[in-house]
Amino acid sequence: METTGTTAAQGTDRPVIDLLQLYPRDMNIYGDWGNVLVLRKRLQLRGYDVRLHEYNPGDAFPPTVDLIVGGGGQDSGQNKIQADLLALGGRLKELADDGVPMLAICGLYQLFGNFFRTGTGEMIKGIGLLNVDTVAGPTRLIGNTVIESSEFGTVIGYENHSGQTFLKEGTQPFGTVTKGEGNNGQDGTEGARYRNVVASYLHGSLLPKNPAVADFLVRQAALRRYGSFDDAPLQVPFEVQARLDAAARPR
Ligand code: GLN
Fold first, then answer.
1. From the CA of 173, how far away is ligand 1's center (Å)?
2. Where is the active site (predicted)?
């Protein structure tokens, strides 16, 4: 395992957040790395030191994890991480049940679910952290996307997936599609929510344009580790502009 970022607590008394990026080598497309950058930056602006752990197949899982993020991938990338992710599944489910905030985008969202059957009929097993099933459809669902979320307001992103995901019993969507296709192009849902887990098809990346989602993850991580969080709003001008630009784009 590679550890980068601030090696916190060395001579400082700033609080530390351990941020884990799952599978950056194989699952990190359409700008998903930007989610890690935003989480790290917003944590730093709020006074936390960030230890960034990049976890690839075969690495040791860090002993302390406050926040988990992972991106999308090609079917081949999903195949490469499948065995490792299945081995990690029990631990990830325990952490989710314990309130650890997580962001899973597209290919990792699918594998946080029960399974993804690809366009060639291959079955890639998921860990069942989310009760969702994914089957590739006849055409890819591609384009700029806008959803409405009761928790986060208007959320803006970009989707590109063959998989069509269906929420099964007890699973809530992340939001409702107002532009684009979302989970499956049929039922108007997008993504999934469970405890402090946010799963979504939206790349672009998601968090730079949607600071409300970023701050939810940051807040839950800080509250769980330290029991308190200063909710003072952070206005980053680039984010305001990115949001306006992205919302104005045609599909
Ligand atoms: N390979 C998956 C699909 O095509 C996920 C794609 C992605 O992560 N963008 O559905």
1. 18
2. 106 (nucleophile), 203
